[in-house]
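hey
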């Protein structure tokens, strides 16, 4: 019987109706990130976003739940960067939510005609990958609107 704590990865591929450079900008411009990042029940205040876009730089933001105002700070180190096709982030451990080891988030962007195919790989998660996957899918609905708007 499989162990319930086996590491899990979230892998999501989506096609966006926008050029690759526009989708990359949506991941790296703080104004864009504030408009889409996070699950539907959260906001990302623009003033909490700090992106030092270079290998070794930081990618930081705070999610605020709309229903109770709870704050969840996220911090990452940028470990790979190839504009406009690859962004790889290593999360800070978050022991307060049971994540004692970092996760690796890999965003790969490919030309798909005049559109962009994005593959996100995130993990490993000891538990809760399903929760992370639903959060990403919710966020990507907003990302699709942001990149279409220009």
């Amino acid at each position: 019987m499989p162990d319930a704590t086996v590491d899990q990865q979230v892998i999501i591929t989506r096609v966006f109706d926008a050029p690759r450079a526009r989708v990359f900008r949506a991941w790296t411009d703080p104004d864009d990130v504030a408009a889409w990042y996070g699950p539907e029940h959260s906001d990302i205040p623009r003033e909490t976003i700090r992106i030092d876009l270079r290998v070794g730089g930081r990618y930081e933001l705070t999610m605020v739940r709309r229903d109770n105002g709870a704050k969840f700070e996220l911090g990452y180190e940028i470990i790979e960067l190839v504009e406009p096709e690859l962004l790889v982030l290593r999360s800070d451990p978050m022991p307060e939510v049971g994540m004692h080891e970092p996760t690796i988030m890999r965003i790969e962007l490919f030309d798909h005609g005049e559109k962009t195919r994005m593959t996100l790989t995130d993990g490993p998660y000891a538990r809760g990958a399903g929760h992370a996957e639903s959060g990403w899918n919710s966020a990507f609905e907003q990302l699709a609107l942001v990149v279409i708007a220009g």
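Residues 30 and 49 are 6 Å apart (CA to CA). Residues 9-40+81-149 form a domain with the Alpha-D-Glucose-1,6-Bisphosphate; Chain A, domain 4 fold (CATH 3.30.530.20).
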